[in-house]
Amino acid sequence: MNICVFLSAADLDARYTNPARVFGELIGKAGHTLVWGGSDMGLMKVVADEVRAAGGRLVGISVEILADVAREDADEMVIAANLAERKALLLARADAIVVLAGGLGTLDEATEILELKKHALHAKPVVLLNTDGFYDGLTAQLRRMDADGFLPVPLDDLLHVSADGADALAYLDAAVNG
Ligand SMILES: CC(C)=CCNc1ncnc2c1ncn2[C@@H]1O[C@H](COP(=O)(O)O)[C@@H](O)[C@H]1O
């Protein structure tokens, strides 16, 4: 399975690096391919290091303005012209999407993927990996949108929230392979 992961490019403490490490190892051990933004920094590096060490493939979709921080030993590295093209390519290369802890870049990618799914422009499973309650605020906001009629599609049809990487991967396996 080609699993697209969105997550922070920042250097963070163990509360965030540990879940990224665990999830990368799960991806690699299961023989999946990591599709990610390709930058060799922060959590993006942590997850890619683990996938590689556990035997998985790395497909990076970087962008011209960040090409100088792209990982050098990826199995494949695509350099998109701009961030919009990068997001389209990330989605195109993915069978499933997982959102780990991140900042505005991650949020931008996650909301775009959900908005496209809302409009039935793709039907790929999306998991929000809510380790350490990082996304409690976002899930509360999304549930309120759902409950108060802001979403034309039930939230559960758009997004699965997992508390750990093993649950996320099990959900994706069931969603993609039936
Ligand atoms: C050279 C340098 C300091 C670059 C910092 N900027 C970035 N580096 C890598 N990926 C990014 C960057 N900005 C946005 N992204 C995209 O947004 C996510 C990370 O942004 P953030 O750290 O969550 O907000 C990644 O999934 C990536 O695809």
Automatic annotation (TrEMBL):
<dbReference type="GO" id="GO:0016799">
    <property type="term" value="F:hydrolase activity, hydrolyzing N-glycosyl compounds"/>
</dbReference>
<comment type="similarity">
    <text>Belongs to the LOG family.</text>
</comment>
<protein>
    <recommendedName>
        <fullName>Cytokinin riboside 5'-monophosphate phosphoribohydrolase</fullName>
        <ecNumber>3.2.2.n1</ecNumber>
    </recommendedName>
</protein>
<dbReference type="InterPro" id="IPR005269">
    <property type="entry name" value="LOG"/>
</dbReference>
<keyword id="KW-0203">Cytokinin biosynthesis</keyword>
<dbReference type="InterPro" id="IPR031100">
    <property type="entry name" value="LOG_fam"/>
</dbReference>
<keyword id="KW-0378">Hydrolase</keyword>
<dbReference type="GO" id="GO:0009691">
    <property type="term" value="P:cytokinin biosynthetic process"/>
</dbReference>
<dbReference type="GO" id="GO:0005829">
    <property type="term" value="C:cytosol"/>
</dbReference>
<dbReference type="Pfam" id="PF03641">
    <property type="entry name" value="Lysine_decarbox"/>
</dbReference>
